[in-house]
């Protein structure tokens, strides 16, 4: 291991190993030996190659070149600059020590076998194999890997830097094995491609022959088959679906263009191709941005906005952290509430906020199960179900699909639509939904389903169990005013051809329209009333009767909408004993009901009017039984109950009514009648009553309280067990009225009835 000081020649993008020759355009002066070192960027390696200067050559133009022959490796030491400016380094020669142990011999045999396989795969000349067999020394055998054109620069540098012969052989075997594996994969792919090409060529020839035969027969549909071939290849279908499509295409090709079956097959293939199997919308997983979109489109509705924001936040965390989504964790949001509260329009906003396509599927009045699952292809005029059609219309496999009015689906001899919806809305099943027409599995787990309904009572229990219900209980007057100013008024201005500053309405005037001309949970009728006002104003501007800008006054409202339609009439209605103010929930939201009671000579019977349902009739009987059984405790003379017939009526008589929550209202009306104490006009109530005088909880508290607030009622009696529902009521409403949770009828009566003339006034 002698040490020398040699001229250093850096090499760019090339590595020279012992035994290799190299010609460089460089002048080395009188040096007989140099050291060649590969350069990595601006750094030199620790191991170089000592090379003999074999020949000096003078090139045309006076340039110098040298032929070099690699000898053996050397460790690079300290460097210095020679007298003529060349870089010289101290080197320590490291010739190969040729081990003869069993491991080295085994590696040598393995290396030869691997390289010979590579040469065979590549179809190399036998002379290369002979050259390889002629190499005896293990070190030189390992260095022969450097001749491979497939090794990278860094791999060759690693080979040069490995001084130990056994380790170098191991490295060479590993590198050549990697290369052999890659070549074998390429060969297999090439063979498969060639086999496919051969099959395509054979099929092409056969198709051309069939095309010629069909032309002779007048059945030229070869171009149709080719068009379907192209469309199927471009559709991105799952493997099972593509197999089914190609089977049908083969049937089409065999059937001929004039057969009756041909039209059916073509329609089926058109539907298979129309489904967006591989097309997806790029979903925007931005909870903050989505919330801004939802807030811009809708006022209020905090619950649904929070749920959509949570949905996007969870998907974003899963995506960012590489957590695979559980297919059973899909969100099936169901928005239940009165008409006009924004259930349908919120679906469009959700689609816009998430960057998905939006499709609305109306289910109101649907009675045929095939509308969901599709018709079987054996029927004439068969079509896929509405979900497949919705995906086709959306053009993507992950749209937002709004299932509108799910509470109005029906059942008859054609099947149960709600049962068909179970599979669609169950996250554990809808990844393998099978439409009867397509008869292939369709993954609906990527769809964001949103269902809407007016009431939950008519939705079957198993279907409702698969839904995540969000209640739309209606808007307060303050929220209606905000919606009118921010959304309805600007929209109606545009629809009626008016500019933004041409017509102005004060907040007080809008509040008057809300309170005196609308009494609904939503804002649909409010928008109609605003549209009527603006149409009248637009007519005046267009006819030249007024000049813009126009400020709407109360007289303009009366002229457009007529006389006031809704009044706060509880003071008038409850001024006489026997009338109590109750609260109810209808399909259109909360409502206020006046329960009237009167008596007359008779046999002790009970007459009920007002289209009352069975449950409400039972509540009236319970109320009367309670009053009869506790007459003395209630301050009623038992003689007043003898030979008396009672009549309970609930206006409006043309509207059907049912439910147990009018129990305490009926009891209060009867006690008021018999005691002669009127019910306070500021008090409304809701609660189920028992024969023992207990007050049981009810549903729809928020909607009932909003209706009471709109009517001007300031005190609401509710069951004690509904105390937890008070938080659902908007804070501005809670601040303007008093809620009184009660447990017994006695508490209700003490709060609701005016005091007897000799009793002190109770404090509410």
How would you characterize this protein structure?
The protein is an alpha/beta fold and 764 residues long. The protein has six domains: 92 residues, LON domain-like (Archaeosine Trna-guanine Transglycosylase, Chain: A, domain 4), CATH 2.30.130.40; 71 residues, no CATH class; 54 residues; 185 residues, 3-Layer(aba) Sandwich (Rossmann fold); 70 residues, Helicase, Ruva Protein, domain 3 (Orthogonal Bundle), CATH 1.10.8.60; 183 residues, Ribosomal Protein S5, domain 2 (2-Layer Sandwich), CATH 3.30.230. It contains 25 helices and 27 strands. α9 packs antiparallel against α11. It is elongated and about 140 Å long. It starts with a strand and ends in a 12-residue tail after the last helix. The C terminus is likely disordered.
As residue ranges, the low-confidence spans are 760-764
Global Rg: 45 Å
Oligomerization state: single chain
Biggest sheet strand line-up: 1-3-5-6-7
Short summary of the structure?
Helices cover 43% and strands 19% of the residues.
List key phrases describing it.
764 residues; alpha/beta; Archaeosine Trna-guanine Transglycosylase, Chain: A, domain 4; 5-stranded mixed beta barrel; 5-stranded parallel beta sheet; 27 strands; elongated; disordered C terminus
Give the topology.
Layout: E1 3-11, E2 21-24, E3 33-40, E4 43-44, E5 47-58, E6 64-81, E7 87-94, H1 102-122, H2 126-134, H3 138-143, H4 153-161, H5 165-217, H6 222-234, H7 239-255, H8 260-274, H9 287-297, H10 302-320, E8 332-336, H11 343-354, E9 358-362, H12 370-373, H13 386-394, E10 400-404, E11 411-412, E12 415-416, H14 417-425, E13 433-434, E14 441-442, E15 448-453, H15 461-465, E16 468-471, H16 477-495, E17 503-504, H17 507-517, H18 524-542, E18 550-551, H19 554-561, H20 570-573, E19 579-586, E20 589-601, E21 606-609, H21 614-629, E22 644-649, H22 663-675, E23 683-685, E24 688-689, E25 695-696, H23 701-711, E26 715-719, H24 731-734, E27 738-742, H25 745-752
Parallel strand pairs: 1-3, 8-15, 8-16, 9-10, 10-15, 17-18, 21-22, 23-26, 26-27
Antiparallel strand pairs: 1-7, 2-6, 3-4, 3-5, 5-6, 6-7, 11-12, 13-14, 19-20, 20-22, 24-25
């Amino acid at each position: 291991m002698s040490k020398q000081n040699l001229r250093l020649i850096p090499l760019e993008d090339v590595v020279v190993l012992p035994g290799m020759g190299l010609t460089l355009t460089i002048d080395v002066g009188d040096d007989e030996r140099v050291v060649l070192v590969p350069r990595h960027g601006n750094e030199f390696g620790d191991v170089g190659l000592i090379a003999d200067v074999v020949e000096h050559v003078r090139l045309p133009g006076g340039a110098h070149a040298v032929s070099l022959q690699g000898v053996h490796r050397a460790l690079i030491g300290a460097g210095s600059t020679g007298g003529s400016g060349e870089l010289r380094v101290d080197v320590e020669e490291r010739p190969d020590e040729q081990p003869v142990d069993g491991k080295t011999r085994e590696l040598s045999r393995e290396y030869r076998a691997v390289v010979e396989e590579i040469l065979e795969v590549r179809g190399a000349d036998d002379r290369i194999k002979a050259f390889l067999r002629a190499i005896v020394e293990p070190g030189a055998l390992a260095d022969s890997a450097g001749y491979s054109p497939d090794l990278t620069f860094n791999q060759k540098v690693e080979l040069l830097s490995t001084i130990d012969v056994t380790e170098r052989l191991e490295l060479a075997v590993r590198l050549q094995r990697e290369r052999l594996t890659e070549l074998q994969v390429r060969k297999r792919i090439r063979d498969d491609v060639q086999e496919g090409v051969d099959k395509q060529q054979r099929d092409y020839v056969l198709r051309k022959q069939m095309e010629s035969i069909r032309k002779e027969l007048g059945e030229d549909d070869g171009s149709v088959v080719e068009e379907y071939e192209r469309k199927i290849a471009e559709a991105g279908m799952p493997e099972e679906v593509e197999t089914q499509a190609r089977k049908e295409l083969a049937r089409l090709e065999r059937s001929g263009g004039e057969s009756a079956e041909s039209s059916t097959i073509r329609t089926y293939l058109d539907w298979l191709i129309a489904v967006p199997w591989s097309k997806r919308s790029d979903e925007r997983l931005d909870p903050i941005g989505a919330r801004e979109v939802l807030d811009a489109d809708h006022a209020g509705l905090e619950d649904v906005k929070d749920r959509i924001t949570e949905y996007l936040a969870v998907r974003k965390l899963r995506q960012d952290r590489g957590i695979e989504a559980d297919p059973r964790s899909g969100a099936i949001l169901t928005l239940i509430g009165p008409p006009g509260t924004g259930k349908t329009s919120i679906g469009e906003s959700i689609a816009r906020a998430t960057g998905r396509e939006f499709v609305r599927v109306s289910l109101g009045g649907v009675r045929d199960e095939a509308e969901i699952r599709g018709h079987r292809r054996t029927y004439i005029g068969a079509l896929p179900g509405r979900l497949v059609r919705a995906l086709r219309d959306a053009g993507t496999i992950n749209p937002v699909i709004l299932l509108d009015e799910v509470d109005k689906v029906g059942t008859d001899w054609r099947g149960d639509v709600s049962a068909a919806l179970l599979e669609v809305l169950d996250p554990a099943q809808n990844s393998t939904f099978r439409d009867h027409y397509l008869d292939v599995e369709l993954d609906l787990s990527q769809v964001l389903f949103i269902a809407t309904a007016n009431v939950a009572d008519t939705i079957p229990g198993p279907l409702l169990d698969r839904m995540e219900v969000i209640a739309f209980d209606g808007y307060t007057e303050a929220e209606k005013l905000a919606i009118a100013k921010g959304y309805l008024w600007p929209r109606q201005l545009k629809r009626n051809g008016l500019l933004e500053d041409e017509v102005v309405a004060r907040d007080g005037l809008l509040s008057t329209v809300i309170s005196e001309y609308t009494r609904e949970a939503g804002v649909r009728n409010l928008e109609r009333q605003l549209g009527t006002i603006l149409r009248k104003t637009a007519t005046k501007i267009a006819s030249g009767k007024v000049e813009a800008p126009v400020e709407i006054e109360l007289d303009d409202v009366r002229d457009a909408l007529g006389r006031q339609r809704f009044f706060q009439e509880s003071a008038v209605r409850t001024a006489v004993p026997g009338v109590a103010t109750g609260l109810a929930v209808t399909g259109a939201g909360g409502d206020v009901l006046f329960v009237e009671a009167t008596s007359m000579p008779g046999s002790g019977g009970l007459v009920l009017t007002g289209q009352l349902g069975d449950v409400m009739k039972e509540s009236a009987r319970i109320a009367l039984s309670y009053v009869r059984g506790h007459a003395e405790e209630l301050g009623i003379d038992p003689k007043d109950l003898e030979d008396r017939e009672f009549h309970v009526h609930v206006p409006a008589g043309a509207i059907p009514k049912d439910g147990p929550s009018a129990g305490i209202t009926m009891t209060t009306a009867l006690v008021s009648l018999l005691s002669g104490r009127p019910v306070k006009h500021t008090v409304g109530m809701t609660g189920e009553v028992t024969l023992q005088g207990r007050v049981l909880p009810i549903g729809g508290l928020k909607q009932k309280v909003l209706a009471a607030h709109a009517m001007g009622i300031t005190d609401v009696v509710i069951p004690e067990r509904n105390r937890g529902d008070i938080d659902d009521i908007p804070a501005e409403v809670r601040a303007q009225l008093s809620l009184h949770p009660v447990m017994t009828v006695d508490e209700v009566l003490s709060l609701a009835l005016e005091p007897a003339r000799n009793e002190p006034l109770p404090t509410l």
